[in-house]
Amino acid sequence: MIQKQQHSLLNKAEEACDLLRKHIESDHVVRIISHNDADGISAAGVMCNAIARQEGKFHVTIVPRLKDDVLAKILKEKYKLFVFCDMGSASLTPIGRLKGDVIIADHHQTIDSKAEPPENLVHVNPHLYGLDGTSDVSASGLSYLTVRPMDYKELAGLALVGAFGDMQCSNGIEGINKIILEDGTGAGTVEVRDDLKIAYKAQEPLYKALAYTFNPAIKEITGDEEGSRTFLEKLGISYGIKFTELANEEKDLLKEELIRINPNIFGSTYSIPQEIPQLRNIEDYSKLIDACGKNKKHGVGLSICIGDRDGSLKEADLLLKTYRDNIVQGIGWIKKEGSIVLRNIQYIYTADKKRKKVMGTLSSIGLELEILDPEKPVITLSRMDNIVKISGRTTKNLTEKGVNLGSALEDASKSFGGTGGGHNIAAGAVVPYRNMENFLNLVDDVVETQLKAS
Ligand SMILES: [Mn+2]
């Protein structure tokens, strides 16, 4: 059932669609500006696909943030319609100065929400209707809503690729995302099935697929090809072939044994049945686009979203493999080196170029594999010249005991000339390198206070 607030958002998106249609019909090039992560790239992808199907034209730029210099450049452009995806809601005033019409499809918190939006602007944002922009819908979903009246249900899968990229679906699909999912399942363009959540099921030999399954992590298997092979050998399961090629009895046995290690390994999986095997699983698709984003190959990611199944896919695949190998090596590194333990927190530090890119993910996996003590929040520190990039991760168990890494990192970084913040379970910060020790000690103290207060 669609609720009232959802209806209001859908109506606003319809208004945006009318505007988009009008410009396509007038043969105007649609100017799209979107964000450089998996959600932003998919959001641009959904938009471009719909415009192309309407025989319209577009010009896309993918940027990390809507910084002043980016805005200043755009303000000089002469397009008749600008579409901002995954950004823009925090810059309503400058965007309102654009000469052309504007659509903003953004799920981030908006400022001056009470002020009347400028007349040339249609603002599609869930926060304006009391919906949650962190779990109900992502930017790719808002792009989808904007083109939904054109009835391209085959784009529902791509809309969900972005939602997975923004981790909106880890506790199941809800809100607007669910409406999108139902569009897809109703039209047969998205499939949901209870299944093992093993990565690269149709691509890699089983022992590798298991070793490369990072979410959820499987103890003594994730990040450990040797361990994975031993596990399968003991069970008498053919480890050298792909999961999809296993006999049914083997699949059943594997399922039973994996659930014994981590029950989260079994659950809903989402796929796009019409896609090529490599992109069929929506989470795998999202990881591939994410790898493009993280490596600043936005064009490659966008090309895949708009249908290149050849060169771009090969390039993205290589990026994903590199990322995967980084994680596997990182897990080995943590197993060997461990963390440095303070009273209430633990930390890991690196200056290694490759490892720096995956520290946050490594800490999550480390906690789940229990190669890092799950009883203490993990702070990762990556040195970049004069600053240190920090990410913090903890467990649900500890947040229930009062730990809030978002406020801990915010307070501690502010005290030492940096910035930070985030959620209670995952947060980030940046501080000057010379203040790293002091910062760590303060985080340790803040976490102690948080634990004592509850
Ligand atoms: Mn987003």
UniProtKB/TrEMBL annotation:
Q: Which GO terms describe its molecular function?
A: exonuclease activity; nucleic acid binding
The membrane-spanning stretches of this chain are none
- Please report the stretch or stretches of sequence annotated as the DDH domain: 30-148
Gene3D superfamilies according to UniProt: 3.10.310.30, 3.90.1640.30
Q: Provide the DHHA1 domain boundaries.
A: 374-448
Outline the extent of the DHH-CID domain. Answer: 203-260
Q: What is this protein called?
A: Phosphoesterase RecJ domain protein
